[in-house]
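Summary for the steering committee. One of the milestones for this cycle was to obtain a three-dimensional model of the protein with magnesium ion bound, which we needed before selecting residues for the alanine scan. The sequence and ligand used are listed below.
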Amino acid sequence: MQDTPSRIALLIVAAGRGARFGEGVPKQYRNLGGAPLLAVTLRACHAALPDAAIVVVINASDKALFQNVADHAAGMNLSAVTGGATRQESVWLGLQALQRHPPDLVLIHDGVRPFATPELFSRVINAASATGSAIPGLPLTDTIKQIDAAGMITGSPDRARLMRVQTPQAFAFAQIFAAHARLAATASFDLTDDAAVMAAAGYDVAVVAGDSANVKVTFPEDLQVTSNLTDTRTGQGFDVHAFGPGDHVMLGGVRIPHHAGLVGHSDADVLLHALTDALYGALADGDIGQHFPPHDPQWRGQASSLFFRHALARLAARHGRLAHLDATLICETPKIGPHAQAIRENIAALAGISLDRVALKATTSERLGFTGRGEGMAAMAIATIRLPGSNDDV
Ligand code: MG
């Protein structure tokens, strides 16, 4: 959803041992709705910044676990580096890996924050593009007390001047690299976020509005709550576009050579439109024409993956998961079979789900009706999603 000329990279910190989480598999590799937590975080990053290089800093003993995460991250520009003894050292190692092809902006994000939305990424990127660095923060609702070593209250700080901060934190790459280099050379303490590293190096850091849904999974209960996806819903979508002049059609984001094109305000990707409406349907959240009015000039010629990603972001914002997509294309030509695998793979990559969760069929209409006469194409789609259950439901 980004419209900035700068080159952006993502640095995901996932080397921690999570002492507060207890024994066993590290929390970033625990299951969250059918995938490792870290894979869910990576999908959220990929949905927000599909072209960004992603470097994940992992623990040296987690290589096999990370391979499983990578298997869930098809279509991403993903690499891993081994972290250090502290968070600060891990970030520094990740920044050194990025230094080989330095981006303009780097977003540093916790591997255990799976619910960051594209809107949140946009807010920090836009602010950091203007100021050099920006982090998300939220006001405090609880009253804060300062205590001494014996647990006795020694002060009540003014809540209005305090914020609790989150990730992703966005920085001009050259600045955060210099700040970490300086600290690595001089200091032995461990700073728990990178805004503190920037501040220690004398840079100003802006705070933009955070998102209370962007939780950091810290305790086992957090994971139980977030994986309680018991509310299964299904939505359907249908779309039609007419053939017109052109030499290709777009289907599921794949360019297919044809002796005609499809006519539409956007790129007329009839398949992505039906899938997008199926997602909105499952969410009971309007339709594509409501979210992207066809008379609005900004959507002219737009890649329809934008609409599809918007619906996915609405799903993510409700802490839901996409379980399955199924679609049928109806046309006499072009022949879909030779392209079906590529189309499925592209849809799976866009949606951040595995290939076995994306079905595509095609049929003719036996030369009957508008599709039979070759006047246009139709697409039908069904999306199945899972949302967090609530006591009020069914
Ligand atoms: Mg359409």
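Key point for the committee: Residues 337-351 form the longest helix (15 residues).
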